[in-house]
Write a structure and sequence with these properties.
Number of strands of chain A: 5
CATH class of the largest domain in chain A: Alpha Beta
Shape of chain B: globular
CATH topology of chain B: TIM Barrel
CATH class of chain B: Alpha Beta
Strand content of chain B: 5-15%
CATH architecture of the largest domain in chain A: 3-Layer(aba) Sandwich
Radius of gyration of chain A: 17 Å
Distance between the termini of chain B: 12 Å
Order of helices and strands of chain A: HHHHEHEHEHEHEH
Strand order of the largest sheet of chain A: 2-1-3-4-5
Shape of chain A: globular
Largest sheet of chain B: 6 strands, parallel
Order of helices and strands of chain B: HHHHEHHEHEEHHHEHHHEHEEHEHHEH
Number of helices of chain A: 9
Largest sheet of chain A: 5 strands, parallel
Helix content of chain B: 40-55%
Oligomer: heterodimer
Number of strands of chain B: 10
Chain lengths: 209, 410
Amino acid sequence: MHEELFNKIVDMDEEGSIKLAKEYLDGGGDAQKLLNVCRDAMGVIGDKFEKGEYFLSELLLGGEIFSSIMEFTLPLLKEGDIAKLGKIVLGTVKDDIHNIGKDIFKAFVEAAGFEVVDIGVDVPEEKFVEAVKEHKPDIVGMSCLITAGISSMKNTVEALKEAGLKDFKIIIGGGRVDEEVKELAGADAWADDAARGVRLCKELLGVEG
Amino acid sequence: MDMTTKNPQELAKERRARLQAAINLEEPDRVPFCGVGGDIIPAYAGITQKEFNFDYDKAEKALEKFLKDFPCDWPFAAGVTGLDGRILSVAFAEYPDLALSSTFVSGPMHKTLGDKYYRFPGMETDENASPQFLGGTFMEPDEYDDLIEDPVGFVLETILPRACTNLDTPRQAMTTMVRLGMDFSQFYASAAKVGMASAQLGYPSLAIGGAYAPLDIIGDFLRGISNTVLDLRRYPDKVKKATEALTEVIIKYALAFKAIGAELAFIPLHLNEYLSPKLYKEFYWPTLKEVILTLLDEGIKSLVFFEGHHEPHLETILELPKGWGIAYFEKTDVVKAKEILKDHSCVMGGLPITLLVGGTPASIDEYIKNLFEKVKPGGGFILAPSVGTAPRETPLENLTALIEAVEKYG
């Protein structure tokens, strides 16, 4: 089953992969193993994206397949059974209401094994500060699509510093970010696609793979 | 951009010739420069984004002040503010006079419609936030047949009432449409005033119409971006037929702009960056190409904004006839694009907006110098920001440095 399911997901066979996953569980299959196969497949989809073989269309569909399978797989797993690479507080910054980029990244970074606390869109600096105090993440992820988001990111990084919060890395992401914005905002890393974002989150925490 | 020695007419003539040369794939006297717009304009005038979007008097003054102090050859991004309203253009496609009034949805129009597509400052967001397009899902997959059967009727009678809270009942709808007509008048009266002020400042008048990629109508206004991308796999035949049905409607409304003597049709693309070359060539490009070619036959060149990374699809542009229009790139490397599209397409872009925000006068000078060394020879190039929206905090000295660098190295 494992190889067949893995291939179906990577090949974007939505119907076929969901059917196969259901059959596997119905036949008494191991939910933990199923989760691992799906995660591996998502990792390969991300790699293919970074190599230019896959595009956003495949990231979106891959994310969709993954969440469809997880819907009936996760309830079979116990909270403690799911190993986490780290925790991310994620939101779209103040004055920007866009969610697609954030949501694609969320799907892939969760699939990679991170726990994500999604605090929404148009998130003011103080809400980022509160979320970091409450959830003590390893990474803070800020997303923006519009150019106004650039200074919101900078202000949010400053607000986190002023609140004396540290011991986490900051990654910024979205269509309008680059090295220039990373420097300006004072972030640790930037990504303008989800696959790169996931890879950098692992690098920031020194996680293998 | 010496304004002291030339009168406005001479200056406008010079700028137009510069742009025209680039569009005609010739080498102008200097590289033409398309300036920035966006949040910086109200910020520079000391007004809020809410005022800029809802108070035409204040907006006109702010635009005039900005256009005077930060000159360029073509203030494409600095006009009366509104967001793409192409769903209305589809709805009114059968009435050319209305179709050409509905290219943009302004703050007042958004307020009148109570639509769920847009977010305007002081309404749903902070009074200093940029006006934003959000889109959404307003059509179910089993409705593709209705869209294919009668795109105008389906959009007007089914989609708009779903997407606009003030079109809920016939009674509300009648009032809303009357008010919308008044909003159209005010918007275009204001645009005319800005046009006159621009002419006084020596800006060329360049009539621009609009068109859209058929699949983007579905992605932006009907099914939402994510659903549309998934639909390409789930219901490929239906989506393709729907884009074909929309093509005719889009061409119809785009041709309405012949009445105002439109020379260019602005076509901002959205889904291009999402699609693999296979999906792009099957579902996106054929109908977009048909729109561009039909307009070209009617004497209207296209100004296509290739959002995001368009590298995977660059070669398809070569399927268009030489001199078809302007290829405006956001994140695609314009040096590489120009190599591929040399003597075929006018290439526009090249200035990352993030450099303008995060750079220094020295780094901007250096950047323009290097860029122009590569793209200036042979002409056919217009310098423009990757995105026209300069944020409030854009350092003014950077804008000035940019203008000086264009003069120096252009």
